[in-house]
């Protein structure tokens, strides 16, 4: 036994399981699956965070917008005071409040009133003026400040009666904000206070807008400047928030602090939809009419229930299923390889036994040759069945990849979409490879029946079928006399030669030339193109199985085209060669056995 036979025996007797590159593919596929899951999870997280930021900002903007509306109501009060020809009376202010419809148009407000600025020298005149319409009117409580800022009017008066006559100068937070409004001419709010009309003693504040008038009134106002007093509104914080944002089925709960003083909170056990472990929290400070209001915001249980986390897990489960199918395919291939090797070993043992018998039994040589041909036919049949059966799991992987792309297309990043496209293209290439393997295994098994054809017509049909995009032109001198040949293998050779000229062309358009001449026994065929050609040093190698001149990812074919042509031509005893032509492309020459058809044969 020579060295080659020993190597073959060693290879056939040592079937292997999965190779290292199989495990690399599985590992990379797992990495891709977990990468897609991680990216999808991040996208869901970013989407939730963006929604939280939007909802939080919307709450802050609603509070800010509501305070602007209240300021507009107060400024409407200052305009009304200026329009009256004389000092506004209690009845005048009541009519203004009724027309303003604060209960309907300004929910959350506790009332709207007038604070007059009264210097010490006008206090007695001011009190006499007010007691004309309200005999029991008095300013309270007593204080040491040498000026007075009493609440003269407040509507609705019934619910705010305790505030009538209350002097802002008696308490620092009220007095400080009042002087700030007077000195700046801008609206201001007080630090947190407790309103006298609030029996619940909850946090509140006063909202001031200064009132100026060039007219001088004997009952109130400074004689040194135009400042007359304030139009104001008292607010109980809980009532304000209920009128602004109803705490029901909201995505966000929040609290408000003025510096360290709590004004309002929904972050306690009594709050609706409180989430003890919120998904997101946020703190933002809003400068509002001279006071820093700090908002602490967090998501509610309603927010948590609206979020969907199924998409990342769908991607993860789908990817793991695909990875499992890949592993199953590799195991099937490995088992098929082991079965093929075992079968080949059995056939080889039989061949060795037959060869030994041939040495001693020359009279049975014919019978043993026949057995050898049967064994080869069985090997071809096994290759045919094995290649055909591999298409089923490939179609399953293709379908799963399509489902993943359809279900997750909007969430997957561009890199992951590219990987899915690459997977589908690799599967399509493997299917083409299996088709070519099937065609290769069929050569010599079934040549079909001899048929009468016209070479030119057959060539034109093949070219038009392959040139469906119309990028190539065909010319050449082709004999079109009727001949009798095995048309199926001849058409297979022509189709592969023309297809190779198109697939490996380096320009968008090209020209293919086909020449066919026929004599009594043989047809001579030449197929030429103006493509890049094949260097002479590679012209023998291209006939090897799976050999390509470019990397596999840059060519469409399987590397079996010229191997298939070679096998068919050798099957029919044809001569063939290839060489560079005068256009820089490639010319392929071959002969084919034919039988010219006479006219009387056609009639028959």
From TrEMBL:
<feature type="coiled-coil region">
    <location>
        <begin position="348"/>
        <end position="385"/>
    </location>
</feature>
<keyword id="KW-0472">Membrane</keyword>
<keyword id="KW-0175">Coiled coil</keyword>
<dbReference type="InterPro" id="IPR004358">
    <property type="entry name" value="Sig_transdc_His_kin-like_C"/>
</dbReference>
<dbReference type="Pfam" id="PF02518">
    <property type="entry name" value="HATPase_c"/>
</dbReference>
<dbReference type="InterPro" id="IPR005467">
    <property type="entry name" value="His_kinase_dom"/>
</dbReference>
<feature type="domain" description="Histidine kinase">
    <location>
        <begin position="385"/>
        <end position="596"/>
    </location>
</feature>
<keyword id="KW-0597">Phosphoprotein</keyword>
<dbReference type="InterPro" id="IPR006189">
    <property type="entry name" value="CHASE_dom"/>
</dbReference>
<dbReference type="InterPro" id="IPR003661">
    <property type="entry name" value="HisK_dim/P_dom"/>
</dbReference>
<dbReference type="InterPro" id="IPR050351">
    <property type="entry name" value="BphY/WalK/GraS-like"/>
</dbReference>
<keyword id="KW-0812">Transmembrane</keyword>
<dbReference type="InterPro" id="IPR036890">
    <property type="entry name" value="HATPase_C_sf"/>
</dbReference>
<dbReference type="Pfam" id="PF00512">
    <property type="entry name" value="HisKA"/>
</dbReference>
<dbReference type="InterPro" id="IPR003594">
    <property type="entry name" value="HATPase_dom"/>
</dbReference>
<dbReference type="InterPro" id="IPR042240">
    <property type="entry name" value="CHASE_sf"/>
</dbReference>
<keyword id="KW-0418">Kinase</keyword>
<dbReference type="Pfam" id="PF03924">
    <property type="entry name" value="CHASE"/>
</dbReference>
<feature type="transmembrane region" description="Helical">
    <location>
        <begin position="313"/>
        <end position="334"/>
    </location>
</feature>
<feature type="domain" description="CHASE">
    <location>
        <begin position="140"/>
        <end position="247"/>
    </location>
</feature>
<feature type="transmembrane region" description="Helical">
    <location>
        <begin position="20"/>
        <end position="39"/>
    </location>
</feature>
<keyword id="KW-1133">Transmembrane helix</keyword>
<protein>
    <recommendedName>
        <fullName>histidine kinase</fullName>
        <ecNumber>2.7.13.3</ecNumber>
    </recommendedName>
</protein>
<dbReference type="InterPro" id="IPR036097">
    <property type="entry name" value="HisK_dim/P_sf"/>
</dbReference>
<keyword id="KW-0808">Transferase</keyword>
